[in-house]
Amino acid sequence: MTAKPPTLGRMVNGFDPAAPSDMDERTREDIARRQKLLGPAYRLFYRTPVQVDHGRGVHLYDRDNNEYLDAYNNVASVGHANAHVTDAIMAQARRLCTHTRYLQDGIVEYAASLLPSFGGRIASDGHMMFTCTGSEANDLAMQIAMHRTGNRGIIITSEAYHGNSYLTSRFSPSLGEGAPLGTWVRRVSTPDSYRIPPAEIAARMVREVTAQIEDLQRRGEGIAAFIADSVFSSDGIYTTPVDILPQVARVVHAAGGLMIADEVQSGFARTGERFWGYQRHGLDPDIVTLGKPMGNGYPVAGLAVTHDAVAAFGRDRRYFNTFGGNSVAIAAAGATLEVIRSEGLQENARDVGAFMRQELRNIMADAPCIGDVRGAGLYIGVEVVHPGTMLADPATAARIVNALRERRILISATGHDANILKIRPPLIFSRADARQLCDALHAIIRDGGQT
Question: Which parts of this chain are annotated as the region Disordered (predicted)?
């Protein structure tokens, strides 16, 4: 495996301030001022960072009004500065913004509208709880799981990312070696459908989960939960096969643990085929966590949970979050959901995603550096390898990402070796937008990954 630069930790596609660059003087001054005021922990994207001033739809613009095609930011899932969402936020902010300890119509109406979409046990007797971020949602989900089971053990996939709180960072190995895992955390292999025969992946994961549960039990931890992002995005975007999670769930439930579906990245119609990514697997989870695209950029997140999973937690403890589920947050979430449904964005993700994957496979036919194209809906991974091998080639992937940036098209990279191009645009991405991206990518590859 290729080691990451120590100055960047595990962040992929990161700006390295020590690297030579031909940046203009104003950009250098902006970076220096940012580093002085914000400190060393913040990171920037790209070899030459992008300055942004405003956005509209699938585009970002810098202060000189240069246009960038945004094929990365799933947070603005219904498009940057969506009028319906921003109008709802402003109207509610003018009316009231307060916490959840008062009776308010908005929060219960939103829960009533969203809960049926989960299906299974959650739709029949489940509840919603609200936070500000996906990290908080995963933190709360794990607190519930630990309380429900009386156990502490957590099982994750090899390169998972589930948050940056103290607890969630302890089961987010993609943060790198500088963020140590909890002693009660166990990892299982990435479901690498490129290198492992797909028919073997589920059985392999079940074996590994079983072994890790046994180890946790021997050490007195037990199993609280298995948590997974159903597109395994930080592992490298693996969307097939779709028989993995229900088989894992049977093992986890038999040992007394809960199944948590982390939909912070793969939910809200992103995968096109289904509204929630875990539904592609036929999974009936105990808890579903939500975040990122939920409010189209406004900080709102939460979880949906079966009554059985949360009953004891609700009896023995109380939950309160000053800003989680506040009046304006719920207005943003409700308006975003309305746009997804009224504009048919799940169907758009399915259709445009299928079109783009086919275009990328057409490029792959005469691009030996592309080993695999995979994805679901508008969540797509392109594996960059050394030609004639399955060996990861992060250097070429980085060149491609930065060459696209120079053409004002924004994507990123993911996976253990940062060799998988990560394409994750707003759900309003069109075939014309996909064609623009693919044409630029094809030209870059023909030029050997140069700008």
Answer: 1-26
